[in-house]
Amino acid sequence: MKIKGNQVYTLLKTFSVVLILIMTLFTLIVSYTIFKRNIEKAEQSLNFVSEKMTSLTKENWEYVQQKALDLTDNPQKIETMLSYFELPYANYLEQSLNEASSAVDFQYLPNEIYHLYWEGQGLVSVSLALDNFEKAFSSSIHGNMYGQKVDNILPSDGIRFSTVLKAPYTAEGFGTTHMDFEKSRYDDVLQSANFQLPMQVFLLSDTNQLLYHNARGKVDKALEKEVKAQLSKKFGVDQSTFKQQYLFQEAKTNNNYKILAFVPKQAILTNTLKQSSGLFLFSFFVDILLLVVLFVLFRKYVYQVEDILASSMAVSKGDYQNRISLKDKKGEMKQIAQGINQMLDSMQLYLKDIYDLEIKQRDAQMGALQAQINPHFLYNTLEYIRMSAISEGAEELGEVVYAFGALLRNNISQEKMVSLESEMDFCEKYIYLYQMRYPSQIAYHFDIADETKQLNIPKFTIQPLIENYFTHGVDFTKIENVISVKAYIENDLTVIKIIDNGLGMSEEEIEKLNQTIIEKKEPSKKSVGVLNVNQRLCLTFGNQATMKYSSTTSSGITITIKILMGGEEDVSSFAG
């Protein structure tokens, strides 16, 4: 037997594919979880490094600010500093010794600078540059810590913080001090983050000057080049440039120094794949093992299904005596075979029932044909009665029979849409029959504008509303019962109004009925016809048709139907 042509074999293959997909999906979900965890670790490390470096930068900046203030907190110190720059060093030293011996509170500038190195952690050099002096002052922990006059301040090997020297009372700047701090403290922060992937950090001054740059792991030359290129344009760093390739963290100090930290997303993805590779291999071997087990277990099952299918095909070709052998069937396969055999045993009985149903169906079709013949007989009979009444001089009776016949013919006609003019003709015959019954108590009036007569509306749109008036609204205790129908065009709307002076309804009842029309709720016995009319209007015109009940000025009810033709607007958007 051809096992591969068996549907069960196909289902087995489908199940195998689903199993592989489930295992793969599970592996992907776990890998995605690992990826998200790596992202979170990277973000935590970025936050850690940014916060630590922000704190360190703030500490160094505050130290520079405080020491600049200490060097210039009184006029005597400023005068001494100016003397250092004005006088040769020998003269300045002599002046300092004289003033020190005269017990004057004198600041010896080189000595003050020397003490800064012992107080400032990580301080490696101090420089001073005063306005109106060509020479500058420079000292270094690796050279002359007391400092000396130099022509130019050398570029920093550390991280330079600069601030303006100001007079204590006028706050007027007269120079600048530069203090350089060693990079190793920033390097220690970068290396202390509990994260193994590459990370690069940039420290920018308040003027977007690059003060520090280092990387843990492999240096990303492209990132370094792009950051420096953007800084060279004096507009700072555009974060959107890096969001696609890097996790990015920016931190600012209160003096607008910035710490930019980057972790490449590609490194996170590569690390995730390394962590997930073992899981992928495990999933692959589990899939192979499960597939082998499934195909071994289902082999006999497939052969049993093949035998059942072969017997079923024989029966479908007309061998109704064929039965499925039960001797090699087990479990649910045996139950299925028994069920099919029982079904075949019952087939002959079902064939007889089907034959009987076909005979009954033909009888029903004949009855439908007879039902179509009967109305024609009724129309002919009514026409005979009408002509007989006219020939006997009972013309009014003939008119009544004619109107009744027209109503009957209209009721059983199959058309679903009629013109407004045809609907009103039908309504006029209907009212005429009532008027014949109550000649002195009922009057009617139709005012149909010519431009509305050819409007196509659902059949029985107006008649049920008029019938509702005769059923529930006519007050037979008075003789001036009147119903009128008006149709006209107003603001691109066809407006149809059915107005009566009958018993009317309370405002509460009208409000409830209008709410029922809007919400299409289950109608009461009195409002079934109303809801049917509204339903057919909605089905035909959608939101371009509305129906509303209101009280007539004196007594009775006014029903207003509005129909918007040829547009897509909601009727409720029109005023009026």
> Oligomeric status of the shown chains?
single chain
How many distinct domains? 2
Write down the overall mean pLDDT.
81
The residue ranges in which pLDDT falls below 50 over 5 or more consecutive positions are none
GO molecular function: ATP binding; phosphorelay sensor kinase activity
Main location: membrane
Protein name: Two-component system, sensor histidine kinase YesM
Transmembrane segments: 15-35, 279-298
Produce a short descriptive summary.
The protein is an alpha+beta fold and 576 residues long. Helix content is 53%, strand content 18%.
Q: How would you describe this protein?
A:
With 576 residues, this protein is of the alpha+beta class. It folds into 2 domains: 1-72 and 108-322, no CATH class; 439-573, Heat Shock Protein 90, CATH 3.30.565. 53% of the residues lie in helices and 18% in strands. The protein has 13 helices and 16 strands. A 5-stranded antiparallel sheet has the order 3-2-1-5-4, with helices on one face. Strands 11-13-14-16-15 form a 5-stranded mixed sheet. Helix 7 crosses helix 8 (332-391). It is elongated and about 155 Å long.
List the main descriptive attributes of the protein structure presented here.
single chain; 576 residues; alpha+beta; Heat Shock Protein 90; 2 domains; 53% helix; 18% strand; elongated
